[in-house]
Amino acid sequence: MNARRPAEGAETPRSTYREALREGLREALRGDERVFLMGEDVGRYGGCFGVSLGLLEEFGPDRIRDTPLSESAFVGAGIGAALGGLRPVVEIMTVNFSLLALDQVLNNAATLLHMSGGQLNVPVVIRMTTGAGRQLGAQHSHSLEGWYAHIPGIRVLTPATVDDARHMLAAALDDPDPVVLFEHGSLYNEEGALDTAIRSVSLDSAAVRRAGTDVSVITYGGSLPKALAAAEELAGDGIDAEVVDLRSLRPLDDATVTESVARTHRAVIVDEGWRSGSISGEISARITEQSFYDLDAPVQRVCSQEVPIPYARQLEEAALPQPASIVAAVRQAVA
Amino acid sequence: MGEFTMPSLGADMDEGTLVEWLVAEGGEVARGDVVAVVETAKSTIEVECFESGTITELLVEPGTTVPVGTPLAVIGPTASRGRAPSAAPAPVLTGPALTTPLVRHQAAEEGVDLQAVHGSGMGGRITREDVSRAAHPAPARITASPLARRLAESLGVDLASVKGTGSRGAIKADDVRAAAGAAGEGPAPAAPAERAAPAGPPPPPAGTRAAPPPGDRLAIARLMTRAKREIPHYYLSTVIDLASALEWMRTENGARQVADRLVPAALLLKAVALAAREVPELNGHWSDDRFVPATGVRLGTAVSLRGGGLVAPALADADRMPLPELMATLKDLVARARHGRLRASETADPTLTVTNLGDQGVETVFGVIYPPQVAMVGLGRVTDRPVAVDGMLAVHPTVTATLSADHRASDGADGSRFLTALDRLLQHPEDL
After folding, report:
1. Within 10 A of B10 (CB to CB), how many other CB atoms are there?
2. Is ATP-binding a UniProt keyword of this protein (chain B) (predicted)?
């Protein structure tokens, strides 16, 4: 892993998504004794994607804990630690492997507050990688965050910018209930200007990343850079696209989407998940429910092909939403 | 070989929508025939052609909006043998339509012309279903976006008359805005809520058009705003004693068939037309910073439409038309205006307009002048009032006549002369 450590003590104006996540972890570990990180290879190896590189040396093995290869066991342990008063951050290597822990997430983390009659909050934060684009094969490349967004009782976050990567963790740890945070694998090396004026972020609102008047491109996570690239290309043709970054898939910020569609009258949803039964379907349904009389064209969706994500580069690229397919969908919406 | 073009049906008309062709390619037309229905921002109008011949080609599809002067159809010499090569020959049915006696009976019962029915049965035979379909055509479902439907309702636009430019021909918001009055006024005005069109009036029966015509409220709004912005109005008013006029009318009507009887409005209109001839400063148009007096009196008569909105068809030569003829023309005009069936020649530029709110019960109306006209005469309710006659108090039928006039074209003295003339004319109804 080619993670670079930021210069000691200096406030770097630019940061990679990975460095921003690490800074967020470091700040949480420094600021609250109860916070600790656990997961596969998070310690000595520095994290499968290099996010926790150097944290073991800084915070020691009690707070940066390598775990056995058993998602169900260590997620369950994290839930137990949260119930016991700690503030665990549990890292799962990819969302595909998180399915082994789904029982813990759904039947325990998301449900205990309800089952205990409001007595037991579960303040656990579960981080995991999602998404394709790096030729890691079908078992490491899927986008299942939409499945998690189906579950009441948890919050589902999808940081897409370095600012959100830097600050969402603190806000997630402040939440007394379980938070699942999806880091898109293709974003780790993305570099952006870190806004040093930002001290904290809200988890409840979507963000308009690019204002526009002709169409609302609604997306999140790893598809945000693609949507912004598509918007730039469309601008060259005089189509002014607004790009909405959902940031949170549960709860969904309906107000921002509704306001955007009220301005543009057209919506294109970009979601790396499969189309059938997806979060994009949920967003489309809500637009129809809440913005029907504002729509001047059918809602369009750009999703992944409904196949296991292929390993071969060309096939993988063809299976995923790309700027070109977003541009094509927008053209259809504004035609 | 001639062209039938989009006519100018008013001074402020720069485009019109072809709503319906009343002729087909290959059909013969004579000068003066009504060949098409055109919708302007103000109303829906039947348009005559000025040439005789054969329609060799229809150039514009119904629903299309084109600028004034755009060729709509090509009229060739009357076809005797052979057709103009460019004209696609319409399929011609020869001989009796293939069908059974039972179907012929059904067609006769339902009033269906079998020659016009497409046979879907074996060998092109017309079936009972074909006849039923022809007798009760299913209304076509209009494909329109939700926003377009919402806009159409708030702008009073009939979606059936809008051509969609979206995918699968869907009507989009922009199409509705264009239909609502074009002029590219940018975004739609924020909720013209006063329209409050009753949700979903039933579609008009075939052959008539919905009143008010689409876009009509917006057109009125624009025209009236322009009038109040550009025209320095001045207003005069006088009460006219109608005792002798109505007495004369009663005597006159006694000798007439009920259908031919006069109404006070006819007398008033005739008197207005004659007064306009006496005071030409009020009869004409303001254009290019000067007043152009008209040669005859084309008296615009504001007719309010049942569904809201109004049109002002013109009574041509109102000053020279004998009263009975004026009465008949007026009846016909009002009836057809309310059915949206006015002819082009009837809406072309009145030289002076009268608004009569008498039947609405008000006593006085100060109208807003229709540009480019320079005056508007207002007539209120004919009502009994105490009047002084030869030093005695009497109760006579009276009417309040008002004049709104354009101060650029005339002065108060001209306006006074007009109202005085109107009063004098109405005291001698036998000369009207």
Report:
1. 23
2. no
Query: Residues B31-50: what's their mean pLDDT?
Result: 80
Query: Looking at beta carbons, which residues of chain A come within 8 Å of B146?
Result: 292-296
Q: Touching check for A296 and chain B: CB below 8 Å?
A: yes
Name the residue type at position A36: F
- Tell me the per-residue pLDDT of A71-119, one tens digit each, with 9 for 90 and over: 999 999 999 999 999 999 999 999 999 999 999 999 999 999 999 999 9
pLDDT grade for B106, boundaries at 50, 70 and 90: confident
Over residues A191-217, mean pLDDT: 95
Of A293, A332, A335, the CB nearest to B146: A293
Q: Check B146 against A297: CB less than 8 A apart.
A: no
Distance CA(B42)–CA(B14), nearest Å, equals 12
Q: Does B187 touch chain A (CB under 8 A)?
A: no
Chain B interface, best mutation among A263, A290, A296, A332, by max B CB count within 10 A: A296
pLDDT band at residue B85 using 50, 70 and 90 as cut-offs: very low
* More confident position, A301 or B431: A301
Same domain for A220 and A179: no
Chain A partners of B191 at a C-beta cutoff of 8 Å?
none
| Total domains, chain A | 2
CA distance B364 to chain A (A): 43
Instruction: Please list every residue in chain B whose beta carbon sits closer than 8 Å to the beta carbon of residue A332.
Output: 167
CATH number assigned to the domain with residue range B219-431, chosen from the 4 options 3.40.50.10540, 3.40.980.10, 3.20.20.105, 3.30.559.10: 3.30.559.10
State the residue range of the domain holding A234: 207-334
pLDDT band for B317, please (50, 70, 90 cuts). confident
Options 1.10.132, 1.10.10, 4.10.320, 2.60.40; CATH of B103-157: 4.10.320
Contact with chain B for residue A294, Cβ under 8 A: yes
A121, A125, A130, A134 alpha-carbon torsion, rounded to 10°: -170
**Pick among 1.20.140.10, 3.40.50.2000, 3.90.850.10, 2.40.50.100: CATH of B2-76:** 2.40.50.100
Dihedral angle over CA of A43, A46, A47, A50, nearest 10: 160
What is the four-CA torsion angle of B102, B103, B105, B106, rounded to 10 degrees? 120
ipTM at complex level: 0.70
Mean pLDDT of B196-225: 54
Determine whether A71 is an active site residue: yes
- Are the beta carbons of A5 and A180 closer than 8 angstroms? no
Q: What token pair was written down for B333?
A: 């005009």
Q: What residues of chain A lie within 8 A of the CB of B147, using their CB? A: 265, 293-296
pLDDT in the model for residue B139: 64
pTM above threshold 0.90: no
